Amino acid sequence: MALAGQCQMPRLSKVNLFTLFSLWMELFPSSEQQKKSQVKCLQLVHNYLSDNEKKPSLRMGLPIVVKNMKIIGLHCSSTDLHAGQIALIKHGSRLKNCDLYFSRKPCSTCLKMIVNAGVNRISYWPADPEISLQNEVSSPMTTDDAKLDAKAVERLKSNSRARVCVLLQPLVCYMMQFVEETSTKFDFIQKIAKSQPDSNTDFYTTCRQERIKEYESLFLISNEETHKQILMTIGLENLCENPYFSNLRQNMKDLVLVLATVAASVPVFGCFGFYNSESWQANETDHQGLSQEIARHCMIQARLLAYRTEDHKTGVGAIIWAEEKSRSCDGTGPMYFVGCGYNAFPVGSEYADFPHMDDKQKDREIRKFRYIIHAEQNALTFRCREIKPDERSMIFVTKCPCDECVPLIKGAGIKQIYAGDVDAGKKKADISYMKFGELEGVSKFTWQLNPLHTNALDFHEPTARESKSFFINSFYD
Predict the structure, then answer these.
(1) For 244, left (φ over 0), alpha (ψ -120 to 50), or beta?
(2) Which of 62, 89, 347, 366 sits 20 to 30 Å CA-CA off 431?
(3) Element (H, E) at 446
């Protein structure tokens, strides 16, 4: 992702990054969505959108667990458990002094256990809470229960040491414009446009508008009076007066726009997706790809991380997930978070401590490459769990890993790489991308046309042999 050339580009604050992650985890693909997708894997993209991306039912609050300002857990609700309960099961007393970020204000059942664990701060998205207060999705009896629960939550809040609050920061100047410009130029969008010269190249704008509409209906309260009533019920009367109320709604809308814009840069488009051409005939578990929904979901997380970079030219994000051998209680199924990072200068350094010039600077001594920590390196350094050799682990990187990072990824025991491959096989002065193409022992899934199809818009019924190969290798659209 090429960034603007200003001295210090716009960055997402950590608070906004955590908030966006909590919202995005609410949309983690459920097993039911994945099964539907597999059955309909050869339908046109507009059919896919209408069948599988309708407004989902309200899911429970989804916590981002943060310790010392570093993410140590990403969770979402399951069929049986609220996300707060899952966080407690997963982390237990390790939640002490942690900050939790919810996409909904948690219910009393979750809050009492989380408070008891000794968390430091609980921050939540100021819209419809975990137990919905909106009449259109609730019966009168359920609404009464929701109001009683909201009162219980307020009592728990007022009598606990944990700070329970709305922590919503406005975007920095030009951030929204910056996200729009860089998303349009992202590798995946450009690759689709170049490979489909006869198709509608304005697909990105269409996709973005669909995502904005979908996410606004899910995360925002369209009616201002209804929103005020909900805020008063959940103890936020002080935010119902202007200019606080109008500022709150604008900040919420801006963050939803950022999320929709970034999500559109990893689009659902025809037969494009993350595929491994080299091991198409292999049946080993390590060569089996994730469902396209999960791969896309994790890549968008990496894209969000890229907007935290200190590098004024190139932002890169990386996130590591792994897959347990059995399904857990988490709404992510067997998937669990390992670590994440973005490219930045060494911890504790000031902005002017190191060179920021790229390879176009003739004086090699003042180029940045020998000083900047790559996204993959930060993800590995600050991981919260060990990478187990007997479980499938995967790293999602917004850019092709360079020669400095490829050996680290392999040496750490990561089984799969999901990345863009625009720079693969290239050498750019001080930085090279030659080793990615030569890498063996690690499966590489790059953004491309499904190898079973020759045209992104040309769907055909596969032969029995094609179908068998397709499903064995888990390459689902």
Answers:
(1) alpha
(2) 347
(3) strand 443-449
Task: Inform me whether the pLDDT recorded for 236 exceeds 50.
Answer: yes
CA dist 134 and 165 (Å) reads: 21
Residue 361 pLDDT: 54
- How many alpha carbons lie under 13 Å from residue 285 in its C-beta half-sphere? 9
Nearest to 144 by CA among 157, 131, 154, 156: 131
pLDDT in tens, 165-191: 998 999 999 999 999 999 999 999 988
Distances (CA, A) of 454 to 42, 449, 451: 13, 7, 7
Q: Of the residues 53, 376, 404, 461, which is catalytic?
A: 376
Active site residue 376: yes
d(CA 292, CA 299): 10
Tokens of 245: 């109320």
Neighbours of 68 (CB within 10 A): 9
Buried/exposed code over 95-116 (b: 16+ C-beta within 10 A; e: otherwise): beebbbbbbbbbbbbbbbbbbe
Check if the beta carbon of residue 343 is closer than 8 Å to that of residue 374.
yes
Helices (H), ranges, 337-398 = 375-381
Q: Do 424 and 164 form a contact (C-beta atoms < 8 A)?
A: no
Q: Is the pLDDT of residue 277 over 80?
A: no
CA triple 314-315-317, angle to 5 deg: 145
What's the rounded Cα separation, in Å, for the pair 89 and 85? 6
84-103 pLDDT tens trace: 999 999 999 999 999 999 99
Q: Which amino acid is at 139?
A: S
Instruction: Please name the residues in contact with 294: beta carbons below 8 A apart, sequence gap of 6 or more.
Output: 28, 29, 34, 335
In angstroms and rounded to an integer, the radius of gyration of the C-alpha atoms of the chain is: 22
Instruction: Compute the Cα dihedral for 305, 308, 310, 313 and give only its sign.
Output: positive
Which residues on adjacent β-strands are paired with residue 367?
357
Q: How many residues does the chain have?
A: 477
Q: 300-328: buried (b, 16+ CB within 10 Å) or exposed (e) per residue?
A: bbbbbbbbbbbbbbbbbbbbbbbbeeeee
Contact 130, 60 (CB under 8 A): yes
For residue 81 the two structure tokens come to 């458990």
Mean pLDDT across the stretch 436-456? 85
Cβ contacts of 226-231, under 8 Å, gap ≥ 24: 226/134, 227/127, 229/133, 230/127, 230/128, 230/129, 230/133, 230/134, 231/126
286-315 residue pLDDT tens: 568 899 999 999 999 999 999 999 877 789
139 HSE (CA, 13 A, CB side) = 2
CA proximity to 418, closest of 324, 256, 296, 248: 296
